[in-house]
Amino acid sequence: MTEAQQDASGSSDDNDVLTLITEVSESMSRSMYPVSQTKHIVDEIDAAYGNQISTEIFATYMIALDRPTGQVAVANTGSTYRFDQIADTESLVSKLTKGAVPPAKAIKELRAIADTPPPMSLLLRVLGFMLQALGFALCFRMSLSATILAVVISAPIAVVLLWRSVPDMLASLMPFLLTFASALVIALWAVHSHLDDPVRLAVIPVVTLIPGAGLTIALIELTAGDMIAGASRLVFTLVILLSMAFGLALALDIVGLSADRLKDVTADLAPTWVLWIAAPIFAIGNILYACIPKRMWLWTIIFAFGTFWLTQVLQMTMNAAFAAGLAMGLCLLLAFIANTYAKSHPSVLVIFLPTFWLMVPGSMGFVAISGAITADRQLGDLGSSTALSLLSMAMCMMIASVLAPYVTRKPMHRK
């Protein structure tokens, strides 16, 4: 029996292991793990400490039952973690799967991670948000005026998102309110000046609010058989997507922007060379905004740049949706390999998620729904390609997760 297991058995009255299981479940949910993977890791931890705890894990809460004592613990999911918190959570969880940390100490560490203040200043995080907007604008090859407008509008949006005093009820309306405000400014600008692609432009300042990751995770959970978690997450993300599309459509209607001004592809494309700097700029923005630990900066940039261009190359020989899926699957598999073999052992999620957010077609879904609301057929037709891209990514990411134990020394993360 390990020292941690002895400590666990010695404090059975407090049932620290039961509390630990619920704390780990909550932390992994806030770190954007699919339910199936969270369940697998929790079972590993339970076995490592020699307990008999059953868990039921859902998208927003989890229930743990200690079968011998009949004690029950419930945890609700909080807000999504920053990347520095995700990295610290992964590092601790990897130790817990080996039973290497006393439960009481691990509980304190998990709670300390949840309360950790951002290592980046507010100014740097706002700058990071603006760089993300710039990276997306360059990916779309937006015109110079449109790119500048997207970056400028993203600054106040970032300040609002990082404002900690927003009431809970108002926070739930933020995707709608910020999309409406962004679209209203852009629509007014489009009416009084020559501005191409106003719908796509409206996406860029609020792109981090688009639940593309939630849609993909929901598909992964549904495919893995986690029907309740997957279905509830899917409904939740679709509601957010619909509310944002409604905010955009409402702004266009108030301003009176004519249908012939709604275009999916800008008429004045930026030079092709901007694509070479688009992914690195977005990755740097993510580093600052999401507070990625310094030891993972280079990995983040390399993965974003490499996956972006691999997708571009694959699109020359296959459907764009399949190309994106294969590129994301390979990216995830390489993240597992880097986590195992690289000296710094970079966190899988931390180096993978920025690339995922860059590539996931959540923005296409937003534009497609907006097209349906505004009766613009060209925009609405994007819906089918969006669904195919999401499904392709979900399946390839699941395959990568299955293959990971066979190409690495460890199935999970190491510090």
Keywords:
single chain; transmembrane; mainly alpha; ThrE/Ser_Exporter; 2 domains; 3 strands; 415 residues; globular
List the helices and strands and how they pair.
Layout: H1 3-10, H2 16-30, H3 35-48, E1 53-57, E2 61-66, E3 71-76, H4 83-96, H5 103-114, H6 122-139, H7 144-162, H8 168-172, H9 174-192, H10 198-203, H11 212-223, H12 227-255, H13 275-289, H14 297-314, H15 320-341, H16 348-359, H17 362-373, H18 377-380, H19 382-407
Antiparallel strand pairs: 1-2, 2-3
> What radius of gyration results from the CA coordinates?
22 Å
Spatial ordering of strands, largest sheet: 1-2-3
- Helix percentage: 55-70%
Shape: globular
| SS element count, helices | 19
Instruction: Write the element-wise H/E pattern from the N-terminal end onward.
Output: HHHEEEHHHHHHHHHHHHHHHH
Distance between the termini: 23 Å
Number of strand elements: 3
Tell me, rounded to a whole number, the average pLDDT. Answer: 80
In words, what does this structure look like?
This protein has 415 residues and is mainly alpha-helical. The protein folds into two domains: 3-114, no CATH class; 122-407, no CATH class. 67% of the residues lie in helices and 4% in strands. The protein has 19 helices and three strands. It has helices spanning 3-10, 16-30, 35-48, 83-96, 103-114, 122-139, 144-162, 168-172, 174-192, 198-203, 212-223, 227-255, 275-289, 297-314, 320-341, 348-359, 362-373, 377-380, 382-407; strands at residues 53-57, 61-66, 71-76. The chain has a three-stranded antiparallel β-sheet with strand order 1-2-3, with helices on one face. Helix 7 (144-162) packs antiparallel against helix 9, helix 9 runs parallel beside helix 12 and helix 13 packs antiparallel against helix 14. The protein is globular, with a radius of gyration of 22 Å. The protein starts with a helix and ends in an 8-residue tail after the last helix. The relative contact order is 0.11. Mean pLDDT is 80; it is low at 1-13, 362-366, 377-383 and 411-415.
